[in-house]
Amino acid sequence: MYYDMIMAGFGGQGIQIISQLVAVAAINKGYEVTYLPSYGVEKRGGRTNVFLVISDEEIGSPITNHPYALLVMDQIAYDTYIHILRPDGLLVANESLINTSTNRRNDIVSCCLFCNEEAVKLGNAKLANMIALGALLKNSNVLTVDDIEKVIDQVIPERLSHTIPANMQAIRHGYGLA
Amino acid sequence: MRVLTKGNIALAEGAIQAGCKFYFGYPITPQNDIPEYLAKHLPRVGGTFIPAESEIASINMILGASAAGARAMTSSSGPGISLMQEGFSYLAGSELPAVIVNIMRIGPGLGGIAPTQGDYNQAVHGGGHGDYRNIVLAPASCQEMFDLTIKAFELADKYRNPAMILADAMVGQFQEPCRLTPKDPVIIPQKPWALTGAKGRPAQLIKSLFLGPGEMEIHNLDLKKKYDTMEQNEVMYETRHLDDADIMIIAFGTPSRIAKTAIQFLRQEGVRAGLLRPITLFPFPSKAIHEYSRRIHKVLVVEMNTGQMLRDVQLACHNGTKVYFYGRPGGGIPYPDDIMAQVKKIL
Questions:
Q1: Which one of A178, B46, B118, B165 counts the least CB within 10 Å of its CB?
Q2: Residues of A in contact with B257 (CB under 8 A)
Q3: ipTM rounded to 2 decimals
Q4: Interchain contact A34–B (C-beta under 8 A)
Q5: Which residues in chain A are closer than 8 Å to B263, comparing Cβ atoms?
Q6: CA neighbours closer than 13 Å in the CB half-sphere of residue B252
Q7: How many CB pairs under 8 A join A and B?
Q8: What distance in Å separates residue A120's CA from the closest CA in chain B?
Q9: B132-146, pLDDT tens digit by residue?
Q10: Is the pLDDT of residue A43 over 80?
């Protein structure tokens, strides 16, 4: 098994936390993982991205230029990476902030959700990333919602542990919508 | 148990578990996770963390701590490492162990923070003045950031010589599952030469100044003997698929990881490529490269610079071996496709 993905958006959207959830859940299932975040001058509102590789064998390259999956939370992220998504690859896009008609691809599997609006419906706009994660889990068949639930307390900092139920609810909501 | 750990953090935890009791350093990206982690965690093991006023101060504080017999470390990147070079030379001249970490950033000058391997020559061949060598270890995974840091302390003490961890920023910044316990028990050797106050024993001296006639020549030849011993006993490298290879890729750090994926894809297409990854850059695996190149007549060196390790490979290769180079300097990172294309062009 080999599955690689890029997740991208702007700082504050929670790209790193959902990537970490996927990475830690994959390790917990016995997979090899590489997790390469952007680093350096990143800040809230700046660009943020993650290259994530999951495999049942030793992983060579932690970077990828034709990923199996792309999860993007805003227009710049979409425009930056959509052209390198592998044919038949999976696109999870936050349609609240992305107009996919600008660079439309017809040779991929698209899952576009209004993550921001759906998160507001659940009572917290910050849950948009978890809704996108639910959609990714549904369509990628690498990890299940239960796999995430098993490790979420290792990833969410203790001071925010009270948010775990709402996060899990949002992941399930995204899974159901996708 | 394996925990998702960033390379820089694995290195810092490795230093703590190696018994490092003193860290002195000055901030610079992309190695800031190291002092941040040690500031928080070194005191819990009775260690001392000092945010020094400069890199020059850091390296000279290391010299002091080392002379007193402690395991000590500093870390920096490009411009900071350049400032430390005088200290490297004094450490080597005084035969003092120390671990110095360079998470490389792009140069020359202030450059940039993307991954690069532009400091190979500085680490392996140069830097400070005089006839000395650094032990140089090049990790390519988060696990090796942990394991090789412990190894660096061991080698530094064994040879009383500075040991450097030379890593590109990708290895420093990415995360992988790591086992954060030492493979073998850490043993810190006795240091009867250390300057510990001379109570009940004759006073000792540690110095790098030898003005008597011929003294410095004897000292330099003694150092040379030590470096020769390292070349005999401490070379480390990894090989992959070299038994039937038509081409040998030689790469260290991140390019070696990318080459592994390229080789996997090439082999699926029936192209017989293999890898030799130097883990120690000094001592360099020259003998191994020479032996393999007697049978594999095409060698491709891949580096994230304009060709620095390349010269050492050319010197090591058997006569008649064709040595090719593919380099991405200034923050360019090769994709597996790029390396595959180079291999196909050569074969």
A1: B46
A2: 59-62
A3: 0.93
A4: yes
A5: 60
A6: 30
A7: 68
A8: 32
A9: 999 999 999 999 999
A10: no
